[in-house]
């Protein structure tokens, strides 16, 4: 199955390190970050899981629930959690899905038979409270994921959902944004009384900060 942006995230019921969950019910009204690992006791993924645990306050600030997945059974996840706490200095306070039957991996297209039909690829799915898939990332085994970039992308999604704007290249929270080309200058003036800068008719920059000057 191929997952596409904007579609409803496939629902499932599966065992995790925090008990059996029904995915959509578990998400509730929160955003979710579902990220997979090829198998337990792998070095790069060990560092990643520790980092996600360390970022707990950042997930909570954004109303985001992280949840991991590996093809190994729950008892192996518990053993891996002890290694993660020992080596990374953080205990996992989010669930790890046990997927030994490959049910969830297949639902989310995490198994690439031409690569290795026995393990999942290292995918990330950002899911909004309406259960829509909003971002998909896939990493090679040798490259650790940048969860600060995932947080930045979630900041952008949450901000742009609320207003007719988009975030430009390398944007960080608090920096100027671009106004949707679909919005007229008249409407833009009403929505952004602080003013905006027109570089091209389709490229208008606005600073959302109260003290900004629109530059």
Automatic annotation (TrEMBL):
One of its GO terms (biological process) is cell redox homeostasis. Keywords: Antioxidant, Oxidoreductase, Peroxidase, Redox-active center. The keyword Metal-binding does not apply. GO terms for cellular component: cytosol. This is Peroxidase. It comes from Sphingobium indicum F2. Residues 3-159 form the Thioredoxin domain. One of its GO terms (molecular function) is peroxiredoxin activity. The active site is at 45 (cysteine sulfenic acid (-soh) intermediate). Belongs to the peroxiredoxin family. Prx6 subfamily.
């Amino acid at each position: 199955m191929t997952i596409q942006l904007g579609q409803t995230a496939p629902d499932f019921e599966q065992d995790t390190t925090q008990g059996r969950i029904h995915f959509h019910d578990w998400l509730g009204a929160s955003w979710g970050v579902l990220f997979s690992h090829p198998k337990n006791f792998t070095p790069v993924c060990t560092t990643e899981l520790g980092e996600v645990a360390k970022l707990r306050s950042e997930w909570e600030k954004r109303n985001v629930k992280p949840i991991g997945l590996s093809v190994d059974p729950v008892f192996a996840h518990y053993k891996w959690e002890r290694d993660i706490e020992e080596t990374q200095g953080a205990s996992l306070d989010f669930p790890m899905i046990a997927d030994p039957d490959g049910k969830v991996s297949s639902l989310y297209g995490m198994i690439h038979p031409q690569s290795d039909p026995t393990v999942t690829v290292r995918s990330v799915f950002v899911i909004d409270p309406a259960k829509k898939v909003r971002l998909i990332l896939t990493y090679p085994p040798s490259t650790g994921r940048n969860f600060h970039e995932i947080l930045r992308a979630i900041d952008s999604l949450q901000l742009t959902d609320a207003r007719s704007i988009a975030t430009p290249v390398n944007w960080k929270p608090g920096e100027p944004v671009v106004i949707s080309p679909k919005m007229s200058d008249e409407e833009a003036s009403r929505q952004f009384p602080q003013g905006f800068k027109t570089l091209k008719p389709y490229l208008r920059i606005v600073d959302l900060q109260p003290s900004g000057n629109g530059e």
